[in-house]
Every structure is written in C-alpha cells, then in structure tokens.
UniProtKB/TrEMBL annotation:
Annotated metabolic or biological route of this protein: Lipid metabolism; butanoate metabolism
Pfam families named among the record's database cross-references: 3HCDH (PF00725), PP-binding (PF00550)
Gene3D superfamilies in the cross-refs: ACP-like, N-(1-d-carboxylethyl)-l-norvaline Dehydrogenase, domain 2
InterPro entries, alphabetized: 3HC_DH_C (IPR006108), 6-PGluconate_DH-like_C_sf (IPR008927), 6PGD_dom2 (IPR013328), ACP-like_sf (IPR036736), PP-bd_ACP (IPR009081)
Every Carrier domain range: 98-177
Top-level taxon in the UniProt lineage: Bacteria
Species classification: Bacteria, Bacillati, Actinomycetota, Actinomycetes, Kitasatosporales
Family indicated by similarity: Belongs to the 3-hydroxyacyl-CoA dehydrogenase family.
Parts forming coiled coils: none
Name this polypeptide is given: 3-hydroxyacyl-CoA dehydrogenase family protein
C-alpha cells in the first residue's frame, strides 16, 4: 500500500503523469503493471480503506492517504470497476479477445498475480493448496470480485470451491453474470 500511496502523492504533487509513473515501474523495475494501474485494479475505495486502517492503527504519517485518492473515491471514481480512476476504462462486452469469460479470466489473473508479487500461477492450480493464499488474501479477493463485477456475494457463493483456482473463479463470475445480466470492465 505504501508504494501505491507514494505514487498517488507523486501524481498529486504534479511531479509526473499517471501514464509516466506506471511506465517507469514497468520499464525500470520490471513490474507487470504500475502502481496506479494496480490501484485501479484493486479499487481506489479498497486502497483508501486499507490506508485508513493502517494510518488509524499505526498513527504513522507514511500511511496517511493522499488527498487526491480521497477526492477520487468521494467522486465515485474507483478504478476499473467504475470505468475511471487514474486511467480510463470502457464498459464493454469485448476487450479484444471477443470472449467475455476470457476477458474476466485475464482480469482475475492480473489481480492474483499483482497480489502474489508476480508469482506465476496456472489457471487450474489450487490457490489454497499452493500456500500462496491466506485468509486475508481470500477476503481481499472476495471484496475485489464484488466491486469489480458489481456482485453481492452471500451464503453459498462463499464456498471455497468457487475461489480455488483461476478457472473456478472465472466460471463463478460467468455464472453470476449470467444470473445478473451484466458486462465486464475493460481497459482502453
């Protein structure tokens, strides 16, 4: 969270653009995505809430959320799930592959990879048995799915089987979408 917050401060202070900050992290540090893209993927509201908890618990100014982050969240700009954050996203049933389930799987893969610090995971690999996923990550994953795909998860939705693999998560999202009749967020 600190890297995300610091990157937001760099943007807030006019030192660099969002695109340049993310490009720097990808080209110079070898990250799969930049910190502002990561914040958009996680959800700016989730990032803000996490920073507020850290700041409240530790009372350390390094965790103080950047005012720009708070303004974006207050304006309803939460990143990919709302179509606008530090970058713009377009609501569409296609993101280039022509297959919404594959597009969803790509988003899920990005979220998991980002939160597992780039550790490669096969689509059919059991996330819980691998030891990569702990209870905190499971909660973050559920919150991210709810916000990204605009679903309310309750009761039997929270069965571990729905979240055991990337394939299972994508199938679960596809099934929920079929019931809800919604679309997917895709990047411009």
């Amino acid at each position: 969270m600190l890297t995300l917050n610091e990157a937001i401060f760099v943007l807030h202070e006019g030192v660099s653009s969002a695109a340049d900050i993310d490009r720097l992290f990808k080209e110079c540090f070898g990250h799969a995505m930049g910190p502002l893209e990561t914040a958009d993927l996680i959800g700016l509201d989730t990032v803000l809430l996490s920073l507020e908890v850290l700041y409240g618990d530790f009372n350390d100014p390094k965790y103080r959320p950047c005012p720009l982050l708070r303004r974006l969240v207050d304006a309803g700009l939460h990143g990919r799930k709302t179509g606008q954050g530090f970058h713009s996203y377009e609501r569409s049933n296609e993101s280039g592959s022509g297959d919404m389930a594959e597009d969803d799987k790509h988003l899920i893969r990005e979220f998991i990879s980002t939160n597992m610090q780039g550790v490669p995971v096969d689509d059919d690999e059991d996330l819980f048995a691998s030891g990569y996923v702990n209870s905190l990550f499971a909660v973050q994953l559920v919150m991210w799915i709810e916000r990204t795909f605009d679903f309310q998860l309750v009761g039997k939705d929270l069965d571990f089987a729905n979240f055991s693999t990337i394939d299972a998560i994508a199938a679960f999202v596809d099934g929920k979408r079929t019931l809800a009749g919604g679309g997917a967020w895709t990047s411009n």
